[in-house]
Design brief:
Number of strands of chain A: 0
Order of helices and strands of chain A: HHHHHHHHHHHHHHHHHHHHHHH
Low-confidence stretches of chain B: none
Helix content of chain A: over 70%
Mean pLDDT of chain B: 92
Radius of gyration of chain A: 22 Å
Mean pLDDT of chain A: 89
Largest sheet of chain A: none
Strand content of chain B: under 5%
Shape of chain B: elongated
Number of helices of chain A: 23
Largest interface: A-B, 64 and 59 residues
Strand content of chain A: under 5%
Structural class of chain B: mainly alpha
Oligomer: heterodimer
Distance between the termini of chain B: 9 Å
Number of helices of chain B: 6
Order of helices and strands of chain B: HHHHHH
Largest sheet of chain B: none
Chain lengths: 444, 169
């Protein structure tokens, strides 16, 4: 009945506008999205559409790779409880403390190691906020810079394999996750390098941002210094058993996440950190975060189904190509821009579920590589996770960061890092080989 | 506030707690059967037919049965651009209002899951696979999870109401 009065385009815009309004009320994200989707379905198609929201749960049921989500979340929390990160931090502290901004650079490297063991940004965020931030604050590092370091660094978790975002993208775009993961590796490392270069140059120019550590804090016998390097063994081991077994085709995707979760538990046990309290804590947090994501995806799937029903995919295609007369590259840039813009105001996970099905077919039709686009998409997602007013990383950061770091600090800290990421994004767009070289070399 | 409301909140929160605490440990069940699958496929070369569906069943139960507990523990992300600057009381007021939308969505979900449950029970539907498990057990878990989610949301509504009125539950 709604369709009698409005064009489909108007309905799509109306749905988005209502969603933003609902989100602004501060209702839980899944509730806001689910309501708009359910109400739109009922208004558009009457009582026959009453089952639409629930149908999404069967779709989610069939998305077998979604099993990696709780297992990776579990793994992330287990790693942050296991003390692996403390050892890593100590190692970088001693090795890099002597350079200006060295602790921030060390933290970034630690984030790379954590990202290689985890598929989300949660673990990096938890470790960064509880271990690295307090240490760096104590040593008079500039709080705005280090808050940005932790946020940007932990966002690498979704680009460097394993990555849950790429799993989700893989399901929506129907692309093999093994290729996507491999495609994310080099861009992830390049992104980390860019971050480190930024920190290094910034601290060269403004030494007060990252003071050099006093000699006595870093001094220790050579043998102890070498022993510190052992901190790197467990991360390598976990990366190998998990991502390695999967890429080699020995473990399936969900199996590798379970093996990884088990490996993280064993690592915590071997360090004497595993007890009932920790297990309970980790399980509780895992359930909370998994449920949060799953309910958002559930609601977003329904929203996406309504969009599909009103032919939004075709509408976007005709808008970009026929009405605006954009070239393929113009379309691509429009997509990234619109995604960053929407990601600021809407929930990013939901965006992935709603927007990817609209964009990916168009990308393939225009002759772009969907694997490469997955990497671009993930980088855009990283940016969206960090940009205010709404971003999941911001939300986590606010909950976990030490009290000295205010909301304004958090907001302002990301600006330089977002610029670096945009620069990285442009490089990846201009040179698709960066992403595609590794998957083509290994998997053909 | 009538005692019946307070009693409702206490009972529902307790049930949510118990179910949530059981649910949160099923992550180990997922882990166990997937590691088992890895071992049987690769080491003793004996693939098990029921692994995929079983894992899917547990996964679905995990987030649907865990939903109410995550609601109670306030684990769901909100956009707090405006909301975050409200006082506790105004937050509760806002939630009281917007819970209408949330409950609407949940009720639509519940109707869908009820229809699905009745259908799978009547037709004795099985999944299309080598193992061919019945679908109704998971349908009933889905229905229960969503029902529990509604009951918990109502409990939160009562708690918000109490907060607005300045009553302690």
């Amino acid at each position: 009945m709604l369709a009698e009065y409005f064009s489909y385009e108007a309905i799509a815009i109306l749905m988005f506008a209502t969603m933003i309004l609902m989100l602004l009320t501060g209702q839980r994200v899944f509730g806001a999205i689910g309501f708009v989707a359910a109400a739109a379905a009922l208004l558009l198609w009457g009582n026959g559409a009453v089952e639409m929201p629930f149908t999404a749960s069967w779709k989610l049921f069939k998305w077998y790779p979604m099993l990696t989500l709780p297992l990776f979340i579990y793994m992330g929390y287990m790693i942050s409880e296991s003390g692996i990160a403390n050892d890593l931090y100590k190692m970088f502290h001693v090795y890099f403390g002597g350079t200006r901004g060295g602790l921030a650079i060390g933290t970034m490297l630690m984030m790379v190691a954590i990202s290689a063991m985890n598929g989300l940004s949660v673990a990096g965020m938890a470790v960064g906020a509880t271990i690295a931030l307090p240490e760096m604050l104590k040593r008079n590092y500039d709080k705005r810079m280090i808050s940005g370091v932790v946020q940007a660094g932990s966002s690498l978790g979704i680009l460097i394999p394993p990555s849950v975002v790429l799993v989700l993208y893989g399901m929506i775009a129907r692309q093999p996750v093994s290729k996507l993961w491999l495609a994310g590796l080099i861009p992830g490392l390049i992104m980390a390098t860019l971050f480190i270069l930024y920190i290094y140059i910034r601290c060269r120019l403004q030494p007060e941002l990252g003071p050099v550590l006093p000699e006595k804090e870093r001094k220790m016998p050579l043998i102890d210094k070498i022993k510190l390097l052992r901190a790197g063994i467990i991360p390598f081991f976990i990366f190998f058993v998990m991502t390695g077994l999967f890429i080699m085709g020995i473990a399936s995707l969900v199996e590798c996440s379970a093996v990884g979760a088990l490996a993280a538990t064993v690592a915590a046990w071997s360090k004497g950190r595993l007890n009932l309290k920790v297990i309970e804590d980790v399980c509780k947090k895992t359930l909370g975060v998994s449920c949060m994501f799953m309910w958002i995806i559930l609601a977003a799937l329904c929203f996406g189904a309504v969009f599909d029903g009103i032919g939004a995919s075709k509408a976007i295609e005709s808008l970009f190509i026929e009405r605006w007369n954009l070239s393929p590259w113009g379309v691509l840039i429009m997509m990234q821009l619109s995604y960053i813009l929407m990601g600021m105001f809407l929930d990013d996970t939901a965006m992935l579920v709603i927007v990817a099905p609209l964009y990916v077919p168009l990308i393939i039709a225009l002759g772009f590589d969907p694997i490469w686009y997955g990497v671009l998409y993930t980088i855009t997602c990283q940016i969206a996770y960090m940009t205010p007013p709404f971003g999941y990383n911001l939300f986590l950061m606010r909950a976990m960061a030490p009290k000295e770091i205010t909301l304004i600090d958090i907001y302002r800290s990301i600006i330089p890092f977002v610029l670096v990421m945009l620069f990285g994004l442009i490089i990846m767009m201009r040179f698709p080989q960066i992403a595609l070289w590794l998957p083509t070399t290994i998997l053909g | 506030m009538p005692t019946i409301f307070i009693l409702y909140v206490k009972v529902i929160d307790k049930i949510t707690d118990i179910i949530g605490r059981i649910t949160m440990y099923t992550v180990f069940a997922m882990m166990a059967i997937l590691v088992l699958s890895f071992v049987t496929r690769n080491i003793i070369n004996f693939p098990l037919l029921w692994i995929i569906e079983m894992a899917q069943f547990i996964m679905t139960g995990y987030y649907l049965m865990g939903g109410a507990y995550s609601m109670k523990e306030n684990q769901h992300v909100r956009m707090d651009l405006v909301y975050g600057s409200f006082s506790e009381k105004n937050k509760a007021r806002m939630d009281l209002f917007t819970s209408i939308f949330l409950i609407f969505y949940l009720i639509v979900l519940l109707i869908g899951s009820y229809n699905s449950l009745v259908y799978t029970l009547e037709t004795k539907k099985t999944l299309f696979s080598a193992w061919r498990p019945y679908v109704w057990p998971i349908s009933s878990i889905m229905f229960t999870g969503i029902l529990l989610m509604i009951l918990q949301t109502v409990s939160i509504v009562f708690k918000d109401y109490a907060k607005v009125k300045g009553i302690k539950i």
